[in-house]
Amino acid sequence: MKTPRYIFDADRFRTRAALVKSVFKELDLTFSIKANPFLLVALPDESLIRHVEVCSPGELSICKAMDIEGKRIIYSGVMKEETDVGEAVLYGADILTAESKGHFSLIAKAGEGREKSLKVLLRLSSGNQFGMSEEDIMDILSERDRYNVEIVGIHYYSGTAKNKQKQIERDLSNLEGLLTKAEKDRGFIPSLVEYGPGLSAEYYEEPCEEKDRELLNLVSGRILEFAGKYRTGIEMGRFLAAPSGRYFTKVMDVKSNGGVNYVICDGGVHQVKYHAQNMGMKIPPVSVIRSEEEIFSTGKGDAGKEGKEYCIAGSLCTTADVLIRNVMLPELKPGDILCFDRAGAYSVSEGALAFLSRNMPEVWMDDGGLRLLRAEKASWILNTPEKEADHEGSL
User: Fold this and answer.
1) pTM: predicted TM-score of the whole model, two decimal places
2) Every domain range in the chain assigned CATH 3.20.20.10
3) pLDDT by residue (tens digit) across 187-197?
4) What burial letters (b/e) apply to 173-199, b meaning 16+ CB within 10 Å?
5) CA 324 → CA 6, 28, 34, 313, distances in Å?
6) Which of 67, 84, 107, 146 has a CA-to-CA distance to 121 between 20 and 30 Å?
7) Are 234 and 195 a contacting pair, CB within 8 Å?
């Protein structure tokens, strides 16, 4: 097997979407493609996933290339320029989000002269750089009749990896407070509240799937209660994508330094990422593959009780490139392959892929048969200065 590589599983992705939809029933589901744009290949129909959230011009270009219809797009993102908004409108994006008064002005300008009003969500900030203050939202609502836009509702997302009921309760209480005030003071009743619960995906403690279902059921009651008052859309990235990916990296060298058994792989932390996996201190689901038939589990299972303790490191010239600090595995040798499971969220899109100019891995999709989605790509070209500029630069 050529490594490093990703294999994303279409069935796992669709099964996870069906699970979420079964819990939230009539609520519309949105997939945030920043978690893994390659999963657009396996995007279920609108009965399961109604929208995809796009957060940049580049992500919009991906949707165009994948023939994702504009009516399925929510165009979001903390930084928008006039050309970005114009391109999203031209493509027919169903809804645009405004994260500031400036964003709203750009969207309002794009809506001038159109027969049909543009649909807009006003994003409420949770106390960081994303979204806008309650005061700014109230100001926009007070003047909403001046513009050829339809403010359909509120967008709210306060962070990722939530695993407690009280975190969801806090979010929805904030939303209810704003919506009550908006109705009382501005006569505004939303037709949609787009809410990102930011649920954690389990990586480290088996059984991962069961724990994910437990978390989903834990928070669903409060969300459904809120949805009984306001039409609600649920936006997810990590929770939908995480179980659908595997990452494969080859053992290139094995050595002992200072009593520690080090394994050097051809991949690294620039290509596989798990939330809260800092300096390799936690053990994600990893298997050793020596042949198509032979798969050994990690130290979490019985097979891991026999073997050696290893520090699994990657191919980068930095001490930060540690995949797992200490794990019991069957005795390893060069040529063995490590398979990291549940690597479907962010690994392929968030890593520092250009660091050290290592090649970008292959990407495959398993959808009843393996299909190559992206061949191995050289990254050195991104770090190479041009010998002769094609145009004069300016500051």
Assistant:
1) 0.93
2) 50-236
3) 999 999 999 99
4) ebbeebbeebeeebebebebbbbbbbb
5) 18, 38, 25, 7
6) 67
7) yes
pLDDT, tens only, 5-37: 999 999 999 999 999 999 999 999 999 999 999
Tokens of 222: 């409060």
DSSP character string of 168-192: HHHHHHHHHHHHHHHHHHH----SE
Contacts of 357 (CB under 8 A, 6+ apart): 378, 379, 380, 382, 383
- The 3-state DSSP class for residue 389 equals coil
CB 136 within 8 A of CB 172: no
Question: CATH: 2.60.120.260, 3.50.50.60, 2.40.37.10, 3.30.70.1450. Which one for 244-380?
Answer: 2.40.37.10
Q: d(Cα 32, Cα 237) in Å, to the nearest integer?
A: 5
Alpha carbon of 373 to those of 216, 275, 361: distances in Å? Answer: 31, 25, 11
Name the residue type at position 177.
G
Distance CA 395, CA 382 (A): 21
User: For 311-354, what is each residue's pLDDT tens digit?
Assistant: 999 999 999 999 999 999 999 999 999 999 999 999 999 878 88
Whether the Cβ atoms of residue 242 and residue 201 lie closer than 8 Å to each other: yes
| Distance (Å, whole) CA 194 – CA 191 | 10
- Which DSSP symbol is given to 46? T
Instruction: Please list the residue range(s) of the chain that carry CATH number 2.40.37.10.
Output: 244-380
pLDDT at 303: 35
Using CA atoms, how far residue 110 sits from 85, 138, 229, in Å, is: 7, 22, 32
